[in-house]
Predict the 3D structure of the following.
Amino acid sequence: MEIVQAALQQPLDERDTFVREACGDDDSLRREVTETVTWELRMGGFLRHPVLAMKEPDRTLQAGQVIADRFVITRLIGEGGMGIVYEAFDRKRHQRVALKFAKAGFQRLLSPELEGALRVRHPNICLVNEIHTTLIDDCELDFLTMEYVEGVTLARSLEEDGKRPQKEALEIARQLCAGVAEAHRSGIIHRDLKSGNIMLASTVSSGLRVVIMDFGLAGALGTDGAEGGTPGYMAPELLDGAKASFSSDIYALGVILHEIVTDRMPVRESEDATSEAEPFVAPSKLAKGLDPRWDRTILSCLNASPELRPSDARQVIASLEKRPLPKKSLAALALLLLASLAIPQVREWVIDHVWPPPNVRLAILPLAGDSKSLAMAEGVLQDVTERVRRMRSGGRTVVVIPPSEVVDRGVKTADEARAALHATDALDIIVKNEGDDLVAEGAVIDLATKTPLREFSGRYSPATIGSFPAALTGTVSAALRLGGPRTPETVSTAATPAYDRGLYLLRRDQQSFDDAIAAFEEAARLDPRSPLPAAALAEAHIMKFEQTAQQHCLDEARKALRSAENLNPDSPKVRLAAGWLKETTSQYEGALADYRRVLEFEPRNEEVFRRMAAVYDKLQMPSDAIAQYQNAIALDPGYYAGYHGLGVFYYYHGNYQEAAEQFQKSIDRAPGLYDEYTNLGAAFDELGRYDEAERAFLRSLNLRETPRALNNLGAMRAYQKRDDEAITYYARATTLDPSEYVYLENLADSYRRLRRLEEASAAYKKAMDLALAVLKQNPRLGYVRGFVGYISARLGDRQRAEDEIAQALQLSPSETKVIRNAVLTYETLGERDRAIQVLDGAPLQLLRELDRQPDLAEFRQDPRFRKLVAQNSN
């Protein structure tokens, strides 16, 4: 400490020489003195002036002692040359914290840059909460409250366990880069980044957490004052007297990455190197089997020239995660580069196709704010969703997860969007009112690094609110490097608020169609030249028809679609609306033609492939349906929706094993999808894997109680001959969703088996009314007709039962649920010969389901059925 105090009195340009001479050959002492002096200077004189003599600092604050009427001291964690750190309990926040005090005889002179550093918030940066002042022995003492991080320093971990496997090293690097990038974005330089300032902690939810310590104590960019650091981690320019910079932090980051993968500090190529500019040995020469990407990335960080280092920590991790090109691609690329890289358009094409950026799954998070602000901004995010979907994305697939789907999945935060939906990015916006104006702030966030790619802020008056969606879309486009819109379709600024409100209502629920219709009519009046309001108006009328079965709604939809087509018949939005109208009215071939036209404009629109697959399924063209689902998956293998659609397809075609595999793939990519656990459980149940099915259903119910999961769990109990338990689940399902005929039919079956016949009859009749309402909307649904036939048989209407089942088999001859209902219907009617005949060519999985169906006990004993099971099993 005597050397430290003396060093602080020396002129800046003589200080290093003084320390070296004072410490002699004791390198350990020299490093400790240098670090202490550097820390003191970085703190702006935190410890310089005597204020309180603490001759025994570890006894000054005792366990249980209360500081500032708020912090209860737990224990002494550790101390450095001039500072002491305690663990404490914060009574106000009800959490553990760390308190940093000045050591005996020193106090803090608060530097203004520390105030700015306190605002840095990131999971990979130790949070510095506040600066407090307390009285101890009648003297004021300043201290910092910080996040308590329990773990081990990276330096200690490397010392004990050595270098890290490359997978773990990459995860550490990813989190380090995320923290550094966020601090730099806030204008904060660390100045002493090193493995000893990095903690490795663990969390229950996400495993390893890498935390950079003392970022809150660093200076702001451009601050005057002496610069320091730790020898070995200091960039060459710092040794020449230059100021610390983002680039010097990048240099230190490179040193740390080198330590992680080699367990050594960087080594100069020349053993007797006298210049800091001497190049370093490639890390792969020090650690066998190291991927060449580590060499490229680390050596670029350690470049002697600050200008040649990566300009951003995000570039560092991007370089590590970039996959090398195959040799053939390299050869082809070399020829192409030689011939045409001078042409800007060719350069852009090469970058986009040879090194395409990763696919994007952008989650549009619901707006946050007070009710008045949210009312003003209704529909803006849905408008942004559709605008982004129309933008050019080059070689990438850009999937936009709309706010309606985000809300439906119970997702509220960016972290939840990544965990539940496997989104890669998120748009997160907060709105508030200031007078008559709407103020919006937020950002497009890279969810891998939790770093804002581009921030947004804007103020909108009632006259300018229409420009809000375009501004947000521009922010997304810039953040994700999208091109301009594929088509120049827009809505005028005057019409945008009404249009956005209509979109919001259309996507919010299935009941707000009348308000949506009014909003779109207003938008069409204000902007009679845009086809978008008219196309959306057609969609709103289709939705109303699906919910009310009122035939005039289809007439209104056709009228609105004609208006849209008069303005631009070849608009993707118009063709999508046309396809939906044709699909709703069973004009499946025409719907396919419209969807194909949309793909000509937007060949990477995976949603359109899924819609085409559903139409092919209704046309009894299973191979084409599978191909379209696979096309959707190929566009973005990391997005769950294609696997979900294919799983549903396989399930209803009786391929339960394949369905389970697809549902599991969907869950792997979006583990927060509670409905998908229900689907997985249903597939397991059909396969007779009851324990796995029950676990899946319970997992779904733990995430969210839904009528589907309750119904499926009830069905499993019914198949186990536990109808009294099944009724409890069915009844709860019908309470949550009284409009679903399947739940009521299942409830009726259990009532009947328990001899509660009046209740069974009432439930069958309700189920019949609901199913007939669905058929009125679309008479070509064989699945629904199968249920109508079976319910008719249970209600004693023999003729209708036979007619409905015959039509169902004609409409959907390969759908296993239709065949199942046909068997149940014929067995109920006493026509076993026809029931056996229906099973000709039935898949084994369907036969196994029927073999445990509670209403087919006698049927299962029929020798003809046993023969079918035996033949298929063989």
